[in-house]
Q: What sequence folds into this?
């Protein structure tokens, strides 16, 4: 599936405050970036490959108090959804070194606090069946409520309130998967069916010696998500970082399938 991505945004920033962005779709085995053009008004750009994980970041230094940019991209997504029930858990000692960190608790995914819950709810299941049940539980137990969480909301908070947005769903799935002994990472991207249109967050889990997308919101699938980057949780892959506070003026994301 080919996805056309059009992002435009404007932020008020502190004068000459450098901005680190993670907004460009990444080149990967599962997707080909046919086009990716980023234009920023009156700014110098410095691209960084594989900065702290899968993905590409760019330093933006502008000589004004306005960050105005537009990203136009065309991505051919050629990954396929694999049925969960046909996947097996990999023995920990066989995991690739770069997968091991995604077994551990992180700031927003306190998986060490969920061992008892995961054992009682999903302990009778194995491999893909367990992962299928975890995603189904998150989809049914949580309510999608815009504005119900913030940048500090953790998986524990979401578990207690039972509501959130895509960020919180992804954290919840990552947390439960890690508590079950399944590596899971937090992934951002552009989805054609995301509503409201915005940067989208999903989980990716390691089963059968490969990563597989798990979106408990139901807004995206393996076929229609153009990945930007991955990390342990949202703290590793924010779309924008600044030293001083930044104020949004507008932010528009449009994603469409093209033939």
A:
């Amino acid at each position: 599936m080919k996805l056309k991505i059009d992002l435009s945004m404007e932020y008020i920033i502190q004068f000459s405050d450098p901005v680190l962005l993670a907004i460009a779709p990444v080149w990967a085995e599962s997707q080909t970036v046919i086009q990716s053009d980023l234009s920023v008004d009156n700014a110098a750009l410095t691209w960084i490959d594989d900065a702290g994980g899968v993905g590409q970041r760019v330093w933006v230094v502008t000589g004004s108090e306005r960050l105005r940019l537009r990203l136009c991209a065309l991505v051919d997504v050629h990954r396929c959804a694999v049925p969960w029930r046909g996947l097996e858990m990999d023995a920990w000692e066989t995991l690739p070194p770069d997968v091991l960190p995604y077994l551990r608790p992180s700031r927003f995914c306190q998986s060490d606090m969920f061992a008892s819950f995961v054992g009682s709810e999903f302990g009778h299941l194995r491999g893909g069946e367990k992962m299928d049940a975890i995603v189904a539980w998150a989809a049914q137990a949580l309510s999608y409520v815009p504005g119900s969480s913030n940048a500090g909301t953790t998986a524990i908070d979401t578990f207690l309130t039972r509501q959130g947005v895509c960020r919180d769903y992804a954290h919840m799935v990552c947390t439960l998967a890690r508590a079950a002994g399944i590596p899971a990472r937090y992934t951002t991207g552009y989805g054609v069916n995301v509503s409201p249109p915005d940067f989208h967050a999903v989980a990716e889990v390691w089963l059968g010696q490969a990563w597989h997308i798990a979106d408990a919101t139901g807004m995206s699938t393996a076929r229609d998500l153009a990945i930007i980057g991955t990390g342990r949780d949202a703290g590793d892959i924010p779309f924008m970082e600044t030293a001083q506070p930044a104020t949004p003026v507008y932010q528009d994301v449009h994603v469409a399938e093209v033939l």
Q: What stands out?
A: The longest strand covers residues 66-77. The longest helix spans residues 127-141. The mean pLDDT is 94.
